[in-house]
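My current task is to audit a protein record that another person submitted. My question to you is simply how this chain folds and whether the C-alpha cells agree. This is what I was given:
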Amino acid sequence: MNWAFESYDKVLFLPDQHLGRNTAVLQLGIPLEQCVVFDPHRPDGGLTREQLRDARMILWRGHCSVHGRFSAENVAEVRRRVPGVNVLVHPECKHEVVLGADYIGSTEYIIRTLEQAPSGTAWAVGTELNLVRRLADRHPDKQIMFLEKTVCYCSTMNRIDLPHLVHSLESLVAGHVVNRIEVEPTVAANARLALDRMLALP
C-alpha cells in the first residue's frame, strides 16, 4: 500500500474491507473518515461524488465470514469472564474488535505470539476455530480460548481435511489428477506473480 500511495492519491482495496480499513488506519495513519466502503450492488457503489473525492481508501464491500462474526461485545465479555486475558485477533476482524484487542496480526503472528507467551497466561483468540483448537492443544500450559462462545467453523477451510488429502495423494500416485482447476494463461501468470511477491516479503 505504501508503494501504491507513492503514485496514486487513492487505493481500491479488495477483497476484505476490514483488513483494508485496519491497515489504513492503524498502520498508515489514514483517518477513518477517509475510508469508504464501495458496494458493487449499488449505483456508484452507494457513494456520493464527494465521498469518492475525499476518500483515500476505497474498500470493496467484502469480508471473511469467520472474522466478521467477532464483535466488540465478545471482547468485553471475555474480559469480564477471564481476568487478565490477552485478546489476540486477526486484522480481518471488524475495526471495533481490533481497537479493543491487545494484539493484532496475521495467522503467522498469532502462532508466533502464542508460542512465545509465558506459561500460565490466558488468551482469547479471534480467528478460525480449528487453528485456535490446534494452538490450545499445542500449548497446554496456557489458557487459549476462542474469542466467541458460538462455534464458528470456516466452511471453506473445513473442506481441507485428512481424508480428502489422502484421496488426492493416492489418486496422484495412481496417475489420476482429481479436482484439477484450470484458468486462462493470463490469470495463471498474474496469480503466480502475486504469490511470488507474497512469498518474497520478509
